[in-house]
Amino acid sequence: MTFQEYFDGFKAKFDGVDVSDIKDHLAFQFNIDDPEAGGAFYVEVKEGQLYIEPYQYFDRDAAFTCTPETLDKIVTGKTDPIAAFTIQKLKVDGSIEKALRLKDIVDQKSKKASGKKKK
Asked: Among 15, 34, 99, 107, whose Cα sits 20 to 30 Å from the Cα of 45?
C-alpha cells in the first residue's frame, strides 16, 4: 500500500464527521512510520470544521508518530491513544494537553459510525 492509498482510506473514515462541538483550534501532524505507506499528513479542527490534508503542518499543536497499524487501531477505537502512548506505540511531540484532544475527534467519528448503524 502506498502512502496516498493509506491517506485516502484514513480521510474517508472521517468524511462527514461533525466536530462542531470542538470549539478549540486543534492542529495535529501524523508521521506514519512505514517503509511503503510512510509519509506525513495533518488533521485540523478550525471553526467547527475538520480538515485532513496530505501535507506537513508546521504550525501544529502536536505531532504523532506511529505505524499505520497503530493509527488504525486508535481510529477504530480498538486502542486508546493514551494507552498507545504509554506502551510507546505512539510518540507525541508538542503540547500533551492538546494531543489528548485527539480522543475527542476519534469519539466524534465513533458517534457518526454508531449513528449509521441505527438507520
From this structure: 34
